[in-house]
TrEMBL record:
Residues 253-310 form the Protein FecR C-terminal domain. This is FecR family protein. GO terms for molecular function: sigma factor antagonist activity. Gene3D superfamilies: 2.60.120.1440, 3.55.50.30. The keyword Transmembrane applies. Residues 11-51 form the FecR N-terminal domain. The chain crosses the membrane at residues 89-107. Keywords: Membrane, Transmembrane, Transmembrane helix. It comes from the Bacteria. It comes from Pseudochrobactrum asaccharolyticum. Residues 116-207 form the FecR protein domain.
Length: 323
């Protein structure tokens, strides 16, 4: 019963939010909405979650709250019938999602302008570099190519890429990130820019990694090893299965006994929109499997069946997961 109730509240909150944004409430509708908010603290919390997701996705500031209620701007009652169908709600939600994605695109313009090679969300690409080396770009990745007579430098502006390095003893091959650099020692390796660190995974030969701080240690990784580094430190080195770690090259995501929250964070790298867990109780459920990153909607269907969870989809862009 609880699951059905939660799902119903979430759908109601989404519909009320879409109607508010579409200015589709008459005076009577506004009073009904106020009554719905006042009826339950859970109503207010879920409505706040839904509206917060839209503000977050659209890169807009959230309005201040008082007593867990979002202050709504005064609106003139529309001069039309108080009829708002589910189709209109979904259409409005889809419009807001499209606007949010447009905002995210504009926000990313500086990176696009700086990059020599770029992939959007859900895309991948393999390119040949000027020296014959190759770079395989994962989803939402940007590279700047900075070759000189002295060195071959790739700046990873964001995302993840795998490099197969052509031999050239006179010019070292380096991948630079926000935290430092990873220098090839005749090798194939992947570099991923994360929010607070860089992850390096070696498939063949060796790679030297070093943070940008003066006192940062230099560490050498061997084949089938991975590590994270910051500007001043390197994490412990782990042994990995290279096939699993680079499954993204085949359009796959391989996970073994990982929390659902971590899996959703990874899926969001590929999904053209936002997948959000609105029920904290399901965040730690364990997930194992091989998933298709080219079809995130199907992955969500599989997770619903396997974990006995549900989704509310406000267009194909915004997916809310809950009990």
């Amino acid at each position: 019963m609880r699951d059905t109730t939660e799902h119903h509240i979430l759908e109601q909150a989404a519909l009320w939010f879409a109607r508010q944004e579409d200015n589709a409430l008459s005076g009577a509708d506004q009073r009904a909405f106020d009554d719905w908010l006042a009826a339950s603290a859970r109503h207010r919390a879920v409505y706040h979650e839904v509206s917060g997701i839209w503000y977050e996705t659209a890169l807009l500031p959230k309005p201040a709250m008082q007593n867990n209620v979002i202050p709504l701007p005064a609106k003139t009652a529309p001069q039309r019938r108080s009829v708002f169908t589910r189709w209109q709600s979904v259409a409005a939600a889809g419009l807001f999602a499209a606007l949010a994605l447009s905002g995210a695109y504009l926000y990313d313009v500086p990176t696009r302008m700086q990059a020599d090679i770029y992939t959007a969300k859900g895309q991948s690409e393999r390119v040949t570099l000027p020296d014959g080396s190759t770079a395989e770009l994962n989803t939402a990745t940007a590279l700047e190519v900075l070759y000189t007579p002295q060195e071959r430098r790739i700046r990873l502006l964001k995302g993840e890429a795998l490099f197969t390095v052509a031999a050239d003893k006179t010019r070292p091959f380096r991948v630079e990130t926000n935290e430092g650099e990873a220098t090839a020692l005749g090798t194939i390796y992947a570099v991923r820019q994360e929010p607070q660190s860089t992850e390096v995974t070696v498939l063949e030969s060796k790679v030297a990694i070093k943070g940008s701080a003066d006192h940062a240690p230099a560490t050498v990784l061997n084949a089938d090893e991975t590590a994270h580094f910051t500007r001043s430190s390197v994490s412990s080195i782990s042994t990995i299965d290279a096939d699993s770690a680079t499954a993204w090259r085949r359009g796959k995501l391989m996970v073994t006994d990982q929390p659902l929250g971590d899996v959703i964070n990874e899926l969001n790298r590929y999904h053209a929109g936002l997948i959000r867990i609105t029920d904290p109780e399901i965040r730690d459920q364990r997930v194992s499997g091989v998933f298709d990153t080219k079809n995130t909607s199907t992955v969500i269907n599989d997770l619903e069946s396997a974990l006995n969870i549900r989704s509310t989809r406000l267009s194909n862009y915004l997916i809310l997961l809950h009990r």
